[in-house]
Amino acid sequence: MIDFNNVGLRYGHGPEILRNLTFNIEPGSFHFLTGPSGSGKTSLLRLLLLSLKPTSGVVKLFGRDVSAMDQDSLLDMRRHIGIVFQEFRLLDHLTTFENVALPLRVRGEPESVYRSNVTELLEWVGLGERMDALPPLLSGGEKQRAAIARAVIGRPDILLADEPTGNVDPELSLRLVRLFAELNKLGTTIILATHELPLLDSFDFPRMALRDGQVTMHG
Amino acid sequence: MADAALDTAIGAPVRVQGSRRATAIVPERSVAGRTLVLLIAIMTFLSGVTLGGVVLVQKSAVAWSSDVGREVTIQIRPVEGEVMDSNIRTAIALAEATPGVTEAHALTLADSEKLLEPWLGAGLDLSQIDIPRLIVVELGDPKNVDMSMLSTNLQSIKGASLETHAAWRQQLNTMAGTLVVSGVLVLALIVLATVLAVVFATRGTMASNREIVDVLHFIGASNSFIAGEFQGRFLSLGFRGGVVGGLGAVLFFFIVAGAAGSIMPDQASAQLGFLFGRFSLGLDGITGIAAVVPVIAALTAITSRTTVRRFLTQTS
Questions:
Q1: Could you give the CA distance from residue A15 to residue B238 in angstroms, rounded to a whole number?
Q2: Distance of alpha carbon B10 from alpha carbon A83, whole angstroms
């Protein structure tokens, strides 16, 4: 599903952030992406999200070389990928329901079609009673669950999470990773970036360790 | 997708919500709304006033040209040994014998006094001085009048000359044409200024909504969708500003027409009325100003869409 072959990335004329990354991720797998701050986790996730193109090497998603794809094709492919950010990135002027429904709205689906799905998903992540609340009124955990719901409402094949537990307490971190694990059981391929060792030790998922721009697969 | 086990894990109570009205993705307050509405209102007002002015001048010029074209004037200068009244009668007879002429009549001394009043003052006694006398010749169909025949016939009267106002009409048409072209140029400049203002407002709005644009990109929104969201917001602002400015322009002409009739002295009012037809825009003028409103709104929307798409292409 995800194939990296000697992939390198640099910003402008700066130093190489990622070097010679070569790995393969199978469909339906769950990987932790680990590494110290500044090791390139976010850059790797941005490559996977197709918001960056590699400066060298080949990235293949769903069997297609992303470097050779035009913008429309990249956009179509991006709709198969969900993303959860550490800082949630919910739109403050939209209700929780509207934030979660946003990926469907931008695809042109009418609310009458997606209303029940969004409602069901919000209930599933425990935000059934917070649908009409604006994000500034939600707690950190609620915001993160809303962000996760937004990432999965479009039924993505790949779910990327960039430090999704960075702004919540340890107990909620565990519950959120359990939520990702449940999504993984439903068939979604998950890459979860984190540098919280206790969290890594609580789950038996394979790890991709980034250090000095290079990746090592464990497990 | 419901999963009872997960509900337990998260501890979520369940409540199904009813339908709701979708909030705009680009928040209204994030667009420089009031300022832009005011700016577009001013631009529409200026466009409307310019367009109305052009319509007034054009209509007046056509009316003047038509009025002047339906008349020619015979001037009889005093000549030693000639009897003025006799010459006037002869000239009238010759004029009325010309095909296409419906009527000819001499201006009385009182009429001549009135014509000279603005230059020589009131209360003149013209009986003491010899002044040329004028004969107004009204034409039924100006195109079919044989002016050369009338001119030749008038040569038999000493001191008589024919004034067809051709030079005056030519000057009038040139002046009206110049004013219309100037008005169109001013309109073009206003449109250009509006476009530039909307470009800057859109860029500012894009910068202040960068987070929204990024999120929309991350969740798979196309540039076209994002541009459409901004375009919709700007179309609404453009329409509101356009309506305010357009109404202001129409109101302006009504107020000026009223002021010209009630504030100005009768003589000035009459002269302005002669020049501009009492500032009456007419249906075509009001229609023209009304047409400016959707044009400005559409221009605002198209400009913002183009600016957003260029911005997105540059930043993608």
A1: 47
A2: 21
- Does residue B262 have a pLDDT over 90? no
Question: Does A115 touch chain B if contact means CB atoms closer than 8 Å?
Answer: yes
E strand segments, chain B: 71-76, 101-106, 133-139, 160-163
Cα gap A132→A150, rounded to integer Å:
15
- Gap from A157 CA to chain B (nearest CA, Å): 13
A102–chain B nearest CA distance, Å: 8
* pLDDT tens, residue by residue, B211-261: 898 899 888 888 888 888 888 888 888 889 999 999 999 899 888 877 766
Q: List chain B residues with CB under 8 Å of A132.
A: 17, 20
Q: Which residues of chain B are within 8 Å of residue A160 when distances are taken between CB atoms?
A: none
Inter-chain touch A123–B14, beta carbons under 8 Å:
yes
In this model, does residue A132 exceed pLDDT 60?
Answer: yes
Q: pLDDT tens digits for A17-29?
A: 898 999 999 999 9
C-alpha to C-alpha distance for A62 and A79, rounded to whole angstroms = 12
